[in-house]
Write a structure and sequence with these properties.
Blueprint lengths: L22 H17 L1 H6 L9 H13 L5 H10 L12 H10 L2 H23 L5 H9 L4
Helix pairs in contact: 1-6
Length: 148
């Protein structure tokens, strides 16, 4: 008696490709983050972290690239860094083990301080965006349907 074999898609190898980097968004992120990263360099040194290849700007770019471009893991991130670089970082050859180890030991407080430095500029941008008039299609939708 033969039975058909069903494959469980959850266990099949997923073919995930990172999204393509949008140059306009990358430039906007660089313009927004560079002052915040520069402000935290003294704190970076105070924690005893040396200026090395995997420094604060590169690690910030790595974290943002992982999230923004939906990178599958550190191995793919290492390949991307070696092949193309990402955001404001030039192509750099590092081992996957070095990048993995750096992620494990990188202090989250640095990321937190950089993002807290960004909050005032993000609030300003949000308030200026709220003052713009909404497109007609959105106004129509908001007026015809009451959400909540």
């Amino acid at each position: 008696m033969t039975t058909s074999r069903k494959t469980n898609r959850d266990h099949a190898k997923k073919k995930q490709r990172p999204m393509v980097e949008d140059q306009v968004i990358a430039e906007q992120l660089e313009r927004l983050l560079t002052p915040a990263i520069t402000n935290q360099e003294n704190y970076y040194r105070k924690l005893g972290l040396r200026e090395r290849i995997l420094n604060l700007p590169l690690m910030m770019a790595a974290v943002l690239t992982l999230l923004w471009r939906d990178v599958a893991g550190v191995r793919e991130l290492t390949r991307m860094l070696a092949r193309d670089g990402f955001l404001w970082c030039n192509p750099t050859q590092v081992s996957q083990q070095a990048l993995s180890q750096r992620f494990l030991t990188f202090p989250y407080s640095l990321l937190e301080k950089v993002f807290k430095d960004l909050l005032p500029s993000l609030r300003t941008a949000w308030h200026s965006r709220n003052k713009r008039t909404l497109p007609e299609s959105i106004q129509f939708t908001l007026n015809s349907r009451r959400f909540g």
